[in-house]
Every structure is written in structure tokens, then in C-alpha cells.
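Hi! If you just cloned this repository, the fastest way to understand the data is to look at a raw example. We've pasted two of them here, unedited. The first protein comes first, obviously.
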Amino acid sequence: MRRELSISIGQHSDKGRKPTNQDFHGALIPAEPLLGSKGIAVVLADGISSSEVSRVASESSVKGFLTDYYCTSDSWSVKTSAHRVLAATNSWLHSQTRRSYDPHDKDRGYVCTFSAIVIKSTTAHLFHVGDSRIYRVAGLALEQLTNDHRIVVSSQQSYLSRALGINPQIEIDYQALKVETGDVFVLATDGVYEHISARGILDAVKATSDLDAAARRIVENAFENGSPDNLTIQIVRIDALPDSKASEAFAQVSELPPPPLPEARTVLDGYRIIREIHASHRSHIYLAVDTETDERVALKIPSIDLRDDAAYLKRFMMEEWAARRINSPFVLKPCLQSRKRNFLYVVTEFVDGQTLSQWMRDNPKPDLETVRGLTEQIGKGLRAFHRKEMLHQDLRPDNIMIDKTGTVKIIDFGSTRIAGVAESAPLKLQSDILGTVQYTAPEYFLGERGSAASDIFSLGAITYQMLTGRLPYGARMAQTRSKSQQRKLKFSSALDDNSEIPAWMDGVLEKAVHPDPLKRYADVSEFIHDLRHPDERWLKASAKPLIERNPLLFWKALSLGLGLIVIVLLFLLRRRWS
């Protein structure tokens, strides 16, 4: 039986010698599937004592995080999800201060410190701003994991250099730590840790298995030692971790069996099979009709050859999951399942059209504007992936459909890398080269993790191929296995004798498919923009002598010119001697 993440938590908070308690704390342990996809969150905030409304700030930040974090996209990483939520919280707190009776006095504003632990799979993700602290029990010591964002002016005066609500933008400290069963974390406000020693905290934690009792004892000791502030502490113990070989709950191999390959007119779970559209070693795709709605759909069934491959089946299941989280007219849309499913398959909209591969064979010399239009549509589809922290990783002409209206649809998400899932997926699933080598970014051949620039390489190679009918590095890129080999690769100019594309576009294409991902475009929109709006450097480059821009074309032209001269001279000599 698969183990799930399990923790024990003890918490205690007291106003101490203050008239009100401006600290706030909370924790949320969700059920599956959120437990697997988002993890467990433990949060602590401390309002500043000079502000009467800082209690609102601390309460809002804790409640907002525990609510909004679990509403973020499952495809986002923990870091991205938390940072987006905290940025929004900070903006709201800052705007509340600006609307208050004293908008310029930050000491009276909606300001608080913030510390949180999100435990997902076997990793603890720490987020921190201010001077509350996160510790980890390390043997007989208490290891402080966070840095205090406090500037000390004198022994009597100090102030926060960073906190939620102080400025319009916020910088959040982040770190990720691998955890083990039995690990103990402690979150505490300054009212606690400044008035009890590390030994006192450790003794209280180790003295009892009742973490709530330990938290109360630590707060009482800090109060007895003269703490003048609010006192709040949280103690988190890791009781069990998920199976090391298990990925997220939603990526488990389904108990549903793959169906037998259907014949025409077969009805499968309410879908009547019309004909087979495509078959490969990876999948079988059929045109079918929903018998309830008469809607035409595409039904994708796992490959017969790979049905015993657990990793393949996990990726197959993730296709529909990923597609449901992307909303773009340029990405294939899944169909809602309204009936009980008895077999493992994926149902999507049916695209009545042709692949980009077939389109290129039918249109070997397309005009530049058509290529730009197709590239822009593909790019918009890719941006929809990247906004969800997904990488397609197998962008190629066979995975791009063009329907009867000329609209592009990116299809096949079997190789898609999803940041939120990859955080707890086995490493071997993250490092495999899943795409088609001719369009795969060179960093994958070095065993490196891909980025948005990797998909941009594939898009650049496709754009280059539409314009020229060939690939920028031919088959040489797939043969490189070191950075030194990749540095020796030479970009083959897209310009030739019959080229009708502007000379400056050669630089745009070269940048899009550069072997070094750091020298490529960082965002798809930059590449799309440059296809229509040349940068000054491309214009200068295109103004270089032909021998520098395209040596081969230069020598061809020179040879042709010399040949013509020889012919003219021979003609003149012949006339003279005749």
C-alpha cells in the first residue's frame, strides 16, 4: 500500500503582556489529491507592535495563503504558487496602508512578518520575510534556517528592513530542503525565541510526544523569562513520507485497463469508432462519434507495444490532466467525460485538417507572411504552456495540426514536463529525452533540464524549416554529447540564391536556435516580435558585405561573374581573329 505524507503539529499562541495578540498562525493538511499536488502548509505571521491594524495584516496573510495557495494551478511549482500568492497579499496590504488615515507612516500600516513551510512529497519549501524564524532540530542543536530581516541601530532601537506590506513589491527568501521521517521544524516569533534558549526549546520538544503541550511549555517559559511581546510557536514533526518511487497521486498508473484496439463501428464507452486516424509505436488515434451528442472526437489509446511500461502509462495519463489546465485556441482541447469510463484512453476535440509536416510537403515554398502567421499561432500555444509552468518538450511538425480554417493546434502532451509534478517525480522521468531528436534542444543531449528556451529552440527550428525546407544544423545536433562539440556547430544560413526572406531575419533565426540556451530568446513573445520588427543589430548585420553574411553565396556569385567575363573575352577574341 502506498504511503502518504503525514505530519504531527503542535501550536500555541498567547498575547503575553500585550493588550492584544497581533500574531496569527495556521496550518492546513488537505486530503488527496491536494495532499499530493500541493502538500501541507504551516504558516506564521507577526504584526508590528507600533501599528493598531497589524493584527489585520497578520491574520489576512495567513488566511489568504492557506486559501489561495491551494487554488493555484496544480501545474505550478510550490515556489511559483507561493510567490504569486504572497505578491498579491503584499500588494493588498500595501494598498490598504495607502488608503488609511496615515498613508505615509509605515510603522502604523498593514505590515507583518511572514514565515511558512510547505511540505510536498519529500521536500520542505521555506518562505520567509521579516524576523519571525524557522528552525530545524538537528541532533542536539537547533539550526536556524531563516535570516532576520531586521536592521539594528542600537541596543535600544531596531527596525524591520523587509516585511509584508511595507513596499509595493516584496522579496521573499526561499529555500528547499529534503526531509526525512522524524525531522522536526519549529516556527517562532521574536517574543518566543528572544526569551528562551535553544536548549530550552529542544528540551521541551524532546520531553513529550504531545507537541501541543511542548508548544505551551515553551511559550510559558518565554513569558516567565520576561518576554514583553506576543508569543507564538509551531512545532512540526514528519511522521511519514510518500513512497520514494511514487509520484503525485494523480500520476499513478490507473487501475483501468487499456482497451483492445477497436474495429470500425465498435462502441467504446459510448464512443462509436469511425476509423483509425494515426498509429505509431506510442499510440493509436481513432476518429469517433459521441453517441449522446453526435459530436466528432479523437480517441487516443495506449500503444500495444508499451502497455507494460509503467513510465509510459504515467505520461499517457498526464496528457489529459495537462490539457485540462491549458485554455488556448492554439492547443488541443480535451473533451469532458460525462459517462463512466471502463478503459484507459484520452478523448479530445477532432481537428479536421492536416499536420504541419504534410502542409510543408504540400507547400515547399511558402511566402514569408504565411510562415510568420503560423509561427505566431504556434508561439501563442507555447506561451499557454509556459504560463502554467509546462514545457511541451516534443514540439515538431507532426505534433502541430492545421485545421480547415488555417488555425494551428499543438497536440500530443506525452512528453510535457509539468513543474508541479516534476518536483516529486522520479529523476529518471525528468532526465529522459522524450522528444524527437531533430527538433530537440541541445541541452537535453547533455542531460540538462529544459526551460522555456528549449521549446523556443524547437519553434525556431520549425520556422527555419518552413522557410528553407531543411534544418539549421541538419543531423549534427543530435550527435553532440558535450558543450565543446556544440560550440563547434555552425549555423547554416537561411539565405540562398533563391531566398526571398530579408537578410536581417537570418540573425533572428540564428538566435532562436543557438546551441547555448542562455543566448536564445528567453520568451516566445520576443522571438515572435523580432520576426516582424528587426532589431538594429540584425539590420547592421544584414548590411555587412555578402562575403561575411553568406560566403557560399558570395563565391557562387563571384564564380558566375568570372564565368561571364571569360565567355565575353572568348567572344571578343573570336571576333578579332575572324
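Ok, and the second one:
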Amino acid sequence: MSPEEKINADQEERLCYMALENRSRELAAYIEAIGQLALVSVTDRNGRILQTNARFCEVSGYSEAELISQDHHILNSGTHPKEFFAEMWATIEHGDNWHREICNYSKSGAPYWLDSTIVPLKDDDGQITRYLSISIDITERKQADKMLRRRLKEITCLHSIRRDMEQELPPDECCQRIAVHLRDAMQFPEIATAVIKLDGRHFTSGKYSQNLTHGLQAQIIANDKVCGWLQVFYHESKPFLLPMEQDLIDTIRNDLGKWLERMQAEAERKENEALVWWQANFDPLTNLPNRRMFYDRLEQEMKKSDRSGLPLALLLFDLDHFKQINDTYGHAAGDMLLQDAARRLGGCVRGSDIVARLGGDEFIVILSELADPNTVERITQDALHKLAEPFQLKNEVAYVSTSIGIAFYPADATDSSALLKSADQAMYTAKNQGRNCYSYFTASLQQAAYARMRLINDLRGALAGDQFRVYYQPIVELATGVIHKAEALVRWQHPTRGLVSPAEFIPIAEETGMIADIGDWVFHEVARQAAKWRTSHHATFQISVNRSPMQFHNDGNIHAWFDHLKKLGLPGQSIAVEITEGLLLDTNVTVTNQLLAFRDAGMQVSLDDFGTGYSALAYLKKFDIDYLKIDRSFIHSLTLGSNDMALCEAIIVMAHKLGLSVIAEGVETIEQRDLLAAAGCDYGQGYLFSKPVPAEQFGALLQNARQPI
């Protein structure tokens, strides 16, 4: 080694020594700053004591010189099993804090109890170098608890003996029972006391002599002042009797009565406190932690994650279509399903993980300290499988699935609220992907969530700001080429974004409930326009209006629709209502009543996008459907002899057999129009005739289209 290298090495060694000395001084100052309340000690990784404070020496009875460099076993009382300390070492060597109540022996041999927390201390590289122990002396509390338990035992024994003696049992049976009671009272090593009501004459007559300890009868006979009560002390299994006067008996009776009342009141108070705490922190239906307890546990697990350097995952579960369970089988069955779902989730996670119920059909799981990245995938797949299994609800069997959103701490968020929000956004992505699946949170989800929130806020003011427009697309009779009908389509003219696609804002309007007000506004605009065009163009002109499934949840507004048509002098046939196939499968009585009400009012019903959904043919006649609209996906590649052509022909024939008219959507070429007309299709709608246009342009289109298109 060169002289320069040796100088550098010496300087580096001095700097390391100074840093270590500074840390030792800081730790010593910290220990003394804790004050007289806590016992503080520092051990190395092998359990040798390195530092203590004055309070530690005071309680243990050892001086600091006697403790330094000693193994920690010098303090052990032998009260705890080996497994107790094995668990302690496993915890702190893993880098986690350890917190328990522990019993030690002082130098004089007296036991003392500590409420102890051991914290691993790490160097700059994250390696554990020492262990810091901070303890509170709880010996007096432990002694008080033991005294209370002993007093409870004494009173229990007293009442049992008093009850047996007052039954006037045969001497042998009575003494046998007394022996059992006193034996039970000897469960504590301290002196056990029992006050027994006896008749002294029974002893003098010898009725109990064969069941009493040798020498006991002589003591009783020799005392003529026995008045029916004896106080029996047991110590080291040796019995002693002491006669008592009535005044002393009364005093003891009163004292015991007061003790009993106080202890009963204390027990009731603690029971009430425990009940209030439970109700505030746990879900009464599933016994899982509730939202409040979840946040508390999450904060703790995030701190553990910071110390260990291992991430945690948050899994948010939302049961798919759970509302249908409540609507179909009732809320009691729904509660049974939630309880079973909670048990299944608990069986999918590790023992250290936390399962909570946020409310409704939402559950959340905290997967802490993820050393193996495959753990999340395994648990998620297991949960999807378990929750997809049938649920037995008394005499019914129900099926649900779940959508799961997954977020990681600290990668996806650095605080609990943001982490839950990230998991929530991922969960909604899983629902949009078809449900019964899971999705991980990504930065793009965050951006989409912010954009969606801004869109919702803008949408709330769109109606009041007169930002909606109604566009009309012609529906042409294929046999004549004349415009007989039109479909009304709502458009949103955003003040800064321009025209917003209906595919973007209609789902949001449905989720937020704003679709009801928007739908009513569209109907009033369409009715006004229908009245105008029936006068200027044709008396039977009809406009179809799309009605969202969400609008069927409230049947109050359809009567307002009927009243508005009467006010304008319009018959029901002036408006057709377009619905989707899925709505026909909804057995809700509200949906059924509305469809029948439209029929009774003379309003026709058109089944939109036919062939892409359930195609529930049995429902077509049940609800008096008037039109089938062949979905554009069948028209797009329509050619002579193609499968799409065969399907279109089959739909047209079937509809006509049922007395329904057929409208083909998405007609864009003359070939498509001619093939559909040749197959007997009644109407066509698409860009071949016109794209959706504002009312003014559509009016001009009607004027120019008096000749066939």
C-alpha cells in the first residue's frame, strides 16, 4: 500500500469511528430523554446488553455495571415457554417490531411484569445492528388483576357453599360438595377464603365428623360461641377454623355484597365499552373490519411496508349484478350471500392479510409485505374462482362473479385515500372489460379518471346551458324510396370540445342518473318537431326516440309524455320508442308496465340492434313489438349469397310472419339497398340516404325528397 493510500485508509477509519461515536451519543441521549417512566435497554444481535437507563436498573435491581455485556437471559423468569421467545426472535430478526407483556425476575428474585416493545435498529444499508427495548412497568396492574380474580373466586366459592348448605342436604353429600368448592378455590396459590354457613350442633352431634379433617371436630366442640358461621382459611392445604360473632358475620356479608356489586358494575361497564368499540370498528353482518378499521389497518401496514421495503397490494372486490340477488330473492338472501362471500375471501388470503367490508357488496383485501410478486396473481385467481362458485341461499341457488381492482403501495399512491381511489379506478376498468376479471391500476387509468370526472362536471351544466342538440336521420321505405320516418339522436355541443360523441357521454349520463332529464328534454324537442313535420310533410310522419334502460326504472315520466302529446294534439303513433334486446329479459314489473302503457297509448315500439344480443324471440309477441332493426354489423359486409345475407333474409321472413316491420341500419351502398329490398326488407337507414343532421337540414331534406330517394 502506498503512503497516500495508507493516509486515505486512516482518514476513512477515523471518519467511520467518529460517525459511530456520534450515533452512540445520540442513542444514549435518546435513552435518557425518555425519562423516569420507561425502562430502556439496547442489545446486540446476540442478545447481549449494551446500554440501559436508570429506570431499568431501578426496576431490575441490577446496577448498570452488572448488566452491561450480560446475556438477556439474566432477566428471564422462566414463566414463558420457549415458543414465546422463538416468536420474539423471528419477528425482530425479520425487521418487524415486537410487542408483548413479559415477566422477568429482579436481582432479589421477585417477579415483575413489563409491557415491552422491541424495535430493530438498522444502519444506512438497511442491515439490523442492534435492538432497542422500551418497556413500561405494569407489575402493580398485574397484581391488582390477580387480586380481583382471587376475590371473584372467593365470592363464587362462598355463594356455592352457601347455596348447598341451605338446601339441608345429607351430611355426607353436603361435606363432599364443600370439599369440591374449596378445592376449586385453591386454584390460586394465595390463601383462599370462604365464609360457610353451618349449624354448630351438627358438628357436636358427630354427623359431620367422619368427613372432617382429623382434629377439626375437637376445635368446634371446644367453642360454645359458634353461631352458625365459620371462616375457613386454606394455606398449604392445611385447614383452620375460626368462630365468629354475629356482628362480624354481618360485616363480612356486607363487605362481600359491596365487592360483588362493584365487580358486577365494572364488568358491565367493560362489556359495554367493548360492544361500542366493536360496533364502531367491525361490520355486524360479516364480522369483518369496517371502513373505519380498514383505514386504520391500512395506515399500519403502509408503515410496515416503509420499514421493510416490501410493497403491499390493495385488492378491491365488487360483486357483479349483486342488486339482482336482492331484487329476486330478497335482502335476507343477499345478506347470506355476503356472509358466504366474506368467508370465501378469508379462505383465499394468507394469515397475515386483512379482509374488510367497505359497505354494500364491496370488499377489500390488504396483501402486506409482498416478497413474492406472484402472490397477488395467485390470490386474485383463487378469489375469482371461489366467488364464481354457486351460492346456496336456503332453497335457492345463486351465481355472481366479481370485478377486482388492484393497486400497489408505494408505486401507485403514497397515501391511503389515493391508494383506495387507484384500486377503485382499476376495479371499474375490470367491470368495463366484461366483469368477472381483474385489472391493475395504471397511470393511463388515472388520466382517464380525471377526464371522466371533468366530463361529468361539464355534463351537469349542459342541459341548463342549452348545449344539447337533436339530430335526425331519415328512415326510407325501400320499395318507394320515400322518407316515412326519422330517428332522433341527441348530440352534445360542448363549448370548448365541440361535438362530444354519444358513446362517450350517454353511459356517463346513465350511471349518474342524468339520462332521465336528458331523455325528457329530447322527447319534448322531438314531439314539437313531429307536430311541425306532420303538418308540412306528411300526416303520418313518425319519429323514433331512444329510451335508455335506466329511464325504465321510473315509470312516472311516461304519463308526462302522454300528457304532452295530448297537449300538442298528437296521436301516439307520431312517436316510436326504441329499446334494446336486453330490456326484454328484465322481468321487473316496472319495465313490463311501461311497455304495455306505450302500447295502450298507441305509441309503437322498435327493437334496436336486433341480432347482437339475446334475440329472445318469445318476448317479441308478448310485448307487441312493431319494428325490428337489423344491426349494422349484418349489413356492413352484405353481398349476394353471403352468410349475412342468409341471416338478414331469415330475420325478415320471421318478422313478417310475426306481423313486424323490418328496418335495416347502416345501409351505405346501392347494392346493399337493392339486396335488402329484394329480400322484402321494409325500411332502410344509413349514410346512403343521409347522415344524422340538425332539424333545419332535415326539413330541407324532406322538401327536396318529395321524389323518391
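That's it. A detail worth noticing about the second one: Confidence is low (pLDDT under 50) at residues 186-245.
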